[in-house]
Amino acid sequence: MSINDFIKQLDTLVESAAEQFNSAIEKLDKDILENARIEFLGAKSGKLKSAQKGLGKVEKADKPVAGKKFNEVKQKLEGLFQAAIEQIEKSRSSTEVKEQFDVTLPGTRISTGHVHPITQTIEELKDITGRLGFTAVEGPEIEDDWHNFEALNISLEHPARDPLDNFYLQTAEKNTGKDNLLRSQTSTVQIRVMEDTKPPVRIVSLGRVYRPDEVDATHYAMFHQIEGLMIDTDVTMADLKSVLLLFAKTYLGDDVEIRFRPSFFPFTEPSVEVDMRWRGIWLEFGGAGMVDPNVLRSVGYDPEEVSGFAFGLGVERLCMGRHGINDIRYLYDNNVRFLSQF
Ligand code: PHE
Question: In terms of residue numbers, what domain contains 320?
Fold first, then answer.
């Protein structure tokens, strides 16, 4: 066999093998590819195997060239076969994915986060009191003795300063009047505002307060208050009641009733507890009263010229009353199944 015939025979072999591999690729048919592999690369009677016999028949001088050519062709065929398998598998897996995708199915909604129920309540309370003419202000959560006690008419011996009822900071010098603490009430902000402003004043302050209460369904060591303060000439209890009634009706609904029960706070005189009757039940929402003359004096106001009322209500209670939540801990457990309902 001449070397030229040998080479030609191998080239034709490559051509027809490539043709069959390609048609297998086109049809994405692994069986066709496997048959082609057996036909050309089969170990026993494959076409390449038979072509190998030609090697023995070429002139001795041509043998190196013929051997080299044979090896090249063998590698080429194996390479083509490997590439064909990979291509079939790749296209198959991508069409399988395509087939699984049903464009008529409704989409899945991406769940976006939302504002915590307490924050929602705070925003709404600000909105309601804003419409009643009260400006929202903020104060610090770490307070000094003056703003949390002294200026609010809570003297050094007063039991409200008990370390069991307050979160004093570790640096506090107990009962020296220099104690810093986490504020136990938002009434601190009344003082801060009056120190900085001349009457008339009409503000609300909404924020966190801290008390070392044992945690149960109605108590938490941190909660929120809404504090209101109105100072002007001739402000009376009647104004306090009207504002709170309007406030309660707007927040809880027209059928709500409110009642005052006599009470005591060092910073108001007279003082009352504020209850609201809602869906047939009387609920306690906080305290209120006419600002004590001592408090007015401590911020440099003249009690002969101005008077005012203050109230402090629990934000959690308002939120729980409105939504029928019966355990304050739900609000702070961070359970998505609870929170996502609001
Ligand atoms: N600061 C009082 C409390 O935390 C509530 C209150 C505020 C009472 C303003 C009267 C006036 O219980």
Answer: 117-339
Q: Is 148 in the pocket of ligand 1 (CB under 6 A)?
A: no
Cβ 317 vs Cβ 281: under 8 Å: no
| Amino acid in the structure at residue 250 | T
Specify whether the CB–CB gap between 200 and 135 falls below 8 A: no
pLDDT tops 70 at residue 98:
no
Measured distance CA(112)–CA(110) in Å, rounded? 6
Is residue 19 in some structural domain? yes
Place of tokens 């504090």: 227
Tens digit of each residue's pLDDT (9 = 90 or more) over 292-330:
999 999 999 999 999 999 999 999 999 998 899 999 999
For a substitution probing ligand 1, which of 148, 188, 265, 315 has the most ligand atoms within 8 Å of its CB?
Answer: 265
Looking at residue 173, which CATH number applies to its domain?
3.30.930.10
28-44 pLDDT tens trace: 888 999 999 999 999 88
Indicate the pLDDT class of residue 248, thresholds 50, 70 and 90.
very high
> What is the C-alpha separation between 54 and 228, in angstroms, rounded?
106
**pLDDT (0 to 100) of residue 101:** 74
Q: Confirm if 237 and 258 have CB atoms less than 8 A apart.
A: no
Q: How many CB atoms lie within 10 A of CB 51?
A: 18
- Mean residue pLDDT across the chain: 92
At residue 29, the 3 state secondary structure works out as coil
Q: Using the mean position of ligand 1's atoms as its centre, give its distance from the Cα of residue 240 in Å.
A: 14
pLDDT reported for residue 55: 86
Looking at the structure, do residues 195 and 82 belong to the same domain, yes or no? no
Q: Is the CB of 285 under 6 A from ligand 1?
A: no
- Helix H or strand E segment including 94: helix 63-100
Q: Are residues 148 and 70 in the same domain?
A: no
**Closest Cα partner for 237 from 292, 312, 290, 294?**
290
